[in-house]
Write a structure and sequence with these properties.
single chain; 528 residues; alpha/beta; TIM Barrel; seven-stranded mixed beta sheet; six-stranded parallel beta sheet; 34% helix; 18% strand; binds zinc ion
């Protein structure tokens, strides 16, 4: 027997959750040819995995890498974690399908999260978008059909209901996206234009998604909650599943510093809905705080008309007082206690890493004023993260909760990575090794089970055929890691540091990471 590549001497943890077995893996072309005793085989390349784990490549179901992958397809922060497939467009924040007019506009609006990829790209369809990634990135890329673009293509950046002809247009755009390979439909109801929607709109759109047997991936509503008879949140998501028949996937559903230790409470409505027959899965990431862009602080009316109108209103001194009052009053999350992660061109870079409260104090300025000024100076190209709790006890409890959630067979991992900016949230560099290494060992979680949660579970939920488990005939998306040493090294104060204990990563049969070094190979494909 002759192979392009053989991985010898490792313990194969195949992704099904079954106990690992000592076996060699023979690869020809893009696929696994055989798994077993292959010591007689010859090969172009042999990777010695003695003492190491050989598992399917990890799948990240929530990655805001849409822009970063277009800027640098090598994508070191993801591939070095062992992530071989990323699902982009979570929260419906994405750049396709968008007309030649809408693409630069929404790119501008989303630059705080997606960065600044080239303005001259064809993003007019999911098919065109897939071509921009196919064999140009180190990892495979799957995409959701995003609620943001679908609404823009139907009615522009306007706060109008999707009914009648507008709804028909939106359903048509969504249907085409799903026909062209979108792996689900994603919305984020603290973002815009998504939050202009009503629950009825979501139900109507999700009836199309259900026809394709694809899931809805949802970031729960906390903006415009009056547009949902259920008041947004978990109840609205469940109602959409109930009325449309769509499978529902809950994005970053976990305890927070304020609810640490209370896993039972957050799961109660989920388990009630599942008992009723609604098909639900969930994802989490192993950090106590999140990351976003400052648009999320502002009331609905500020977003109407798109980014230029937004900046005009921010710069208008005659309404600044009202804007700041509403920021403080609304329940969208107050800006205090956050840290700048990215300050784009035009802004004062010395504020990167600074707590908002301190940055505001510098000028003797109000915190809201500081945020508005930064958004104007950078033309919206700025982002922030939360600050972790002062009490390490609380932080540890949130991490323990994450591993408790991952004990459930309906859970998987979504990093929510935002790989943009000078000091990004550490999840962009460390999410998967933190779960598979550090936290698994700390809480005595079974290795085979954690591998199942980050491979087979997401592949099956999002229809990534041939990438779920290691078996002959499947794609050779493989990570080789050291079970005792795999760990994240990125931290809140020094985030852009690669993990350790992951010597080899293989994508479609090609070696992307070799002895912890990037090879430069861009063998990732648009999937499924
Ligand atoms: Zn997200």
């Amino acid at each position: 027997m002759h192979f392009d590549l053989v991985i010898t001497g490792g313990t194969v943890v195949d992704g099904t959750g079954k106990p690992g077995v000592r076996a060699d893996v023979g690869i020809n072309g893009k696929t696994i040819d055989s798994i077993g005793e292959l010591s007689d085989a010859t090969a172009e390349r042999v990777i010695d995995a003695t003492g190491l784990i050989v598992s399917p490549g990890f799948i990240d179901v929530h990655a805001h890498s849409d822009g970063a992958l277009l800027v640098d397809g090598q994508h070191a922060n993801g591939i070095r974690q062992g992530i071989t497939t990323e699902i982009i467009a979570p929260d419906g924040l994405t750049l396709a399908p968008l007309s030649a007019e809408n693409y630069p506009m929404y790119r501008h609006y989303l630059s705080g999260i997606l960065g600044l990829p080239s303005e001259n790209l064809d993003m007019s369809s999911i098919e065109a978008s897939r071509a921009n990634y196919h064999q140009k990135t180190s990892c495979n890329v799957a995409t959701f059909a995003g609620h943001g673009p679908i609404r823009l293509e139907a009615v522009g950046f306007e706060d109008v209901p999707l009914t009648g002809a507008a709804l028909d247009r939106a359903r048509g755009v969504l249907r085409e996206a799903l026909e062209q390979g979108a792996c689900g439909f994603a919305t984020g109801l603290s973002y815009y234009p998504q939050s202009f929607s009503t629950t009825d709109e979501l139900i109507e759109l999700c009836k199309v998604v259900a026809e394709f047997d694809r899931p809805l991936s949802i970031h729960l509503r906390n903006h415009n909650v009056d547009r949902s008879p259920q008041g947004g949140g978990v109840a609205e998501a469940i109602e959409v599943g109930r009325q449309s028949g769509v499978k529902v996937h809950f994005e970053h559903y976990r305890t927070q510093p304020g609810s640490a230790g209370d896993v039972a409470t957050i799961l109660e409505p989920i388990d009630r809905a599942k008992a009723e027959g609604i098909d639900i899965t969930l994802e989490t990431y192993p950090y106590p705080v999140g990351s976003s862009f400052p648009q999320a602080f502002f009331p609905s009316w500020m977003h109407e008309g798109g980014p230029e109108k937004f900046i005009e209103r921010l710069a208008d001194r005659s309404i600044r007082g009202q804007v700041i009052e509403e920021m403080k009053a609304v329940m969208y999350g107050r800006p205090a206690g956050n840290v700048w992660t990215w300050i784009g061109p035009g802004g004062d870079e010395s504020m990167v890493g600074m707590l908002f409260d301190d940055a505001a104090g510098l000028d003797g300025d109000d915190l809201g004023e500081m945020v508005c000024d930064m958004m104007v100076a950078t033309s919206l190209a700025c982002g922030f993260r939360g600050a972790p709790p002062h009490s390490t006890r609380v932080w540890r409890q949130v991490e323990e909760d994450v591993m408790e959630l991952l004990a459930r067979p309906d859970y998987m991992v979504g990093s929510d990575a935002i790989p943009v900016g000078q000091l990004p949230h550490p999840r962009a560099y460390g999410c998967f090794p933190r779960v598979v290494g550090r936290l698994r060992r700390r809480y005595g979680y079974p290795l085979e089970q954690v591998v199942q949660r980050v491979t087979q579970n997401p592949a099956q939920r999002f229809g990534l055929q041939g990438r779920d488990v290691l078996e002959a005939g499947n794609f050779a998306d493989i990570v080789v890691f050291d079970a005792e040493h795999i760990t994240d090294r990125s931290s809140f104060e020094d985030p852009a540091v690669f993990p350790e204990g992951i010597p080899h990563v293989i994508v479609n049969g090609r070696v992307a990471v070799d002895n912890e070094r990037l090879t430069g190979v861009l063998a990732g494909e648009a999937v499924p």
